[in-house]
Specification:
By secondary structure, the chain is an all-alpha fold. The chain has helices spanning 2-11, 25-51, 58-78, 84-102, 107-119.
């Protein structure tokens, strides 16, 4: 239970998501809008955190934001699943691998890899 709640926190999922059986149709519609805003906000925060000071072309910025957004959306879904934490870790590892190859070898790539490693979640302790 702790791992599942922790996974939900990692993925930044609201308590009553559109997938929740407790959500009414109106709440679900509002929940989807809120979840989209949440994913957009998280995408920008992660983009800034991971790539601040790293030079990217306009096309690279677009690709990076797209990869981060797709991963965040998938993590939100995974957070509600029994094995969600493991899926979140796998999604984040795939995202970081994909983002790494967008950068040429050198200082910027190493900076990104170090920042990504700092943000990689650790499995919560079992009760």
């Amino acid at each position: 239970m702790i791992a599942r709640a922790w996974a939900a926190g990692i993925a930044m999922v609201g308590f009553f998501s559109a997938a929740s059986p407790l959500a009414t149709a109106a709440e679900a519609q509002g929940g989807r809008a809120a979840q989209t805003q949440n994913v957009d906000a998280m995408t920008e925060r992660l983009f800034t955190r991971l790539f601040e000071g790293i030079t990217l072309t306009a096309e690279q910025q677009k690709q990076v934001r797209s990869l981060i957004r797709e991963t965040q959306s998938a993590q939100n879904i995974a957070a509600n699943e029994p094995d969600g934490f493991d899926k979140i870790i796998a999604l984040q590892a795939k995202r970081d691998s994909s983002l790494t190859v967008l950068l040429p070898p050198g200082k910027d790539r190493e900076t990104f890899k170090a920042r990504a490693a700092e943000m990689f979640p650790k499995k919560p302790p079992k009760p």
